[in-house]
Every structure is written in C-alpha cells, then in structure tokens.
Amino acid sequence: MPVREDRRLFEFLILEGAQAGLSWDTILAKRENYRKAFDRFDPRKVARYGAAKKRQLLGNAGIVRNRAKIESAVLNARAFLEVQKEFGSFSGYLWRFTDAGALSRDLKRRGFKFVGTTIMYAFMQAVGMVNDHARDCFRYKALAR
C-alpha cells in the first residue's frame, strides 16, 4: 500500500538499510525493538544522536548491532530533515521518482547511506511505489489505480 507519511517513510528507510545483507524476517522480528531503540523513528531525535547513544545502540541485542548501519541511521535522519526542509516533506520529494537507480543516486548525492539501488528498489516495493503483485492478485488491481 502506498505510504506517504514522512515518519513511516523514515522508518522504512532505516529498516531497509538495516536489512542489507540479512533476511527481511530478521528485521521484521526486530521491528518493535527498532521502534523503541530509535525513538519511534522520529527523525528529529535520531538526527541528534551522539556517541553515547550510538554506543547504547551497539549494545542493544534487540536490533542489528552494526556500527555502519547505526551511524547511517543518524546520518540519514539529518539528510532526511534537509530534504523535508527543501521539499516541504520527504514524501513530496520521494514520490517524484519512478526509478530506483535515480532515487539511489540522488539520495547518495544528498548524503544518505545504505541507499544502493537494490535497497532502494526494496524500499520502493515496501512503501508501495512499485507494484510487483501478480496480475491475478487482488492487490494488483487496487494498486494499479
């Protein structure tokens, strides 16, 4: 289903980055832990995380304890806020794209991390920008509108 609310988009962005190299089931099982650990995905709060908070996250067994992925969440929160400032909303920026490669390149140019083409395609699927449902699936027709 199409997601247009900025906080939910930020959540998907962080979770897709955390999923890189892992199974999606792993991240889904940890989703509620991520919500607690990352202040319910409030980008303003995440953008302010300093060294102490990052150390705390590295010690949190409820999330993927990968230094680069945790650091990217903070950097992405800061970049996310800049995009909101420039476009009025992240959703307004995001929904202009139809190609994962173009989205990936633009996000990287803006300082985002863990936003390669494969991750962005999965993100676009997750937030309803790509309709990969089989044509005979009941969801395909609803999303095709």
Number of strands: 0
Radius of gyration: 15 Å
Please describe the biggest sheet, giving its number of strands, its sense, and whether it closes into a barrel.
none
The assigned CATH architecture is Orthogonal Bundle
CATH T-level fold name: Endonuclease III, domain 1
SSE order: HHHHHHHHH
Low-confidence segments, given as residue ranges, are none
CATH superfamily: Hypothetical protein, domain 2
Overall form = globular
Helix content: 55-70%
CATH class: Mainly Alpha
Q: Could you tell me the strand content as a percent range?
A: under 5%
| Mean model confidence by pLDDT | 94
Name the descriptors.
145 residues, mainly alpha, Endonuclease III, domain 1, globular
Q: What would you say this structure looks like, in words?
A:
This protein has a single domain (6-144), classed as Hypothetical protein, domain 2 (Endonuclease III, domain 1). It starts with 5 loop residues before the first helix and ends with a helix. The longest helix has 21 residues, at 67-87. α1 (6-19) packs across α8. It contains nine helices and no strands. By secondary structure, it is an all-alpha fold.
